[in-house]
Design goal:
With 346 residues, the protein is an alpha/beta fold. The chain has 12 helices and 18 strands. It folds into 2 domains: 176 residues, Medium-chain alcohol dehydrogenases, catalytic domain (Quinone Oxidoreductase, Chain A, domain 1), CATH 3.90.180; 134 residues, Rossmann fold (3-Layer(aba) Sandwich), CATH 3.40.50.720. The strands form 4 sheets. Strands 3, 5, 6, 9, 10, 17 and 18 form a 7-stranded mixed β-sheet that branches. Strands 13-12-11-14-15-16 form a 6-stranded parallel β-sheet, sandwiched between helices.
Length: 346
């Protein structure tokens, strides 16, 4: 095996990423070395690419970027017995300590010592990545790359949708980025009575309809409050699944949430904002669920069931494919709002 590999890195503070050559990592005793077959771009990667205040306060260059990864196990550390050499795996991006009180009580997704690949430690925009063996999720060998590379991000959608009992419920999804689009599909699969969706991108509004939304609306140009109230006989929605992080969408979603309704909140806001806490939450007796990452490893089993049963079809989600050295064009496409998921291959 060669000693160096091509990678896309955040070399220094500031916008953009760079192509570079770095050393191939050696797996620690509890790690595996994965030869990367495909990666995809997430909103977190866009934050790092643009170098917004969140990224500037969190990421410490130099660092290999990227956290949505699939590939083949080519080497195992001395303490590793599974997965098998040659196994096709998708990667969970949260590397946890397994010893803090959260890990010990089945809440590893909020481990206080979490290190995210591509954020806190080297990621997968490279030819190889070393990662703890427990983070390598085995796939069927014939699982399409376009599905395997989505599983980490799909887990966000599954975690959000399964946080609330959606059966026979009227559901509003605010934000139709890739995670929101996949959440629409999950809500349909697990028996929602109706799914409504909002976004500000006409492309993604149309995409939401294809993923199963009964009604998809422009959050600004359409009379969303009137349309949803008309569709729900004036009641509003039973459940809000907030995927956007946009303050205006959050306000709109809580306005439409019924008294005693539930909200699962995945979207990350750009900062503090004004919010009508009394009327949106307290007087409404609303039930709120903050969503972080994926439940380890419950969400992965749920996602596997939805995919393998055919209950959720993710095949439309990857709309653009690039080589890894075309990363600038890939990021431009993802940032345009005119795409689903953007996949890159080394």
């Amino acid at each position: 095996m060669p000693k160096a590999m091509k990678a896309v890195i955040k070399a220094q503070p500031g916008p953009g990423l760079e192509a570079s050559e770095v050393a191939i990592p050696s797996p620690a005793p509890d790690e595996v070395l994965v030869k990367v077959r495909a990666v995809s771009i997430c909103g977190t990667d866009l934050h790092i690419y643009k170098w917004d205040p969140w990224a500037a306060g969190r990421v410490k260059p130099p660092l290999v970027a990227g956290h949505e990864v699939c590939g083949d196990v080519v080497e195992r550390g001395s303490a590793v017995t599974t997965p098998e050499i040659g196994g096709f795996v998708s990667l969970e991006s949260h590397v946890i300590c397994n010893t803090c009180s959260y890990c010990r009580t089945g809440q590893g997704h909020i481990c206080e010592n979490t290190k995210l690949i591509g954020v806190d430690r080297d990621g997968g925009y490279a030819e190889y990545i070393a990662i703890p063996a427990q983070n390598a999720w085995p796939n069927p060998p014939d699982l399409p790359l376009e599905i395997a590379v989505l599983q980490e991000n799909f887990g966000n959608a599954v975690h959000t949708a399964f946080a609330v009992d959606l059966r026979a419920k009227k559901v509003l999804v605010t934000g139709c980025g890739p995670a929101g689009l996949m959440t629409i599909a999950v809500a349909r699969a697990i028996g929602s009575r109706a799914v409504y969706a909002t976004d500000i991108s006409p492309y993604r509004i149309d995409f939401a309809k294809r993923m199963g939304a009964d009604l998809a609306m422009h959050a600004v140009d359409d009379p969303v409050l009137e349309l949803v109230r008309e569709a729900t006989d004036g009641e509003g929605v039973d459940v809000l699944l907030e995927m956007s992080g946009a303050p205006a969408a959050i306000d709109q979603g809580f306005t439409l949430l019924k008294p005693s309704g539930e909200a699962a909140l995945l979207g990350v806001t750009p900062g503090s904002f004004e919010f009508d806490w009394n009327n949106h939450v307290v007087f409404k007796a609303a039930k709120l669920h903050g969503i972080s990452g994926r439940k380890l490893w419950q969400t992965w089993y749920q996602a596997r069931g939805l995919i393998r049963s055919g209950a959720v079809d993710l095949s439309p989600m990857v709309t653009h494919r690039f080589k890894l050295d075309e990363f600038d064009l890939a990021f431009e496409t993802m940032a345009s709002g005119e795409s689903g998921k953007v996949m890159m291959t080394p």
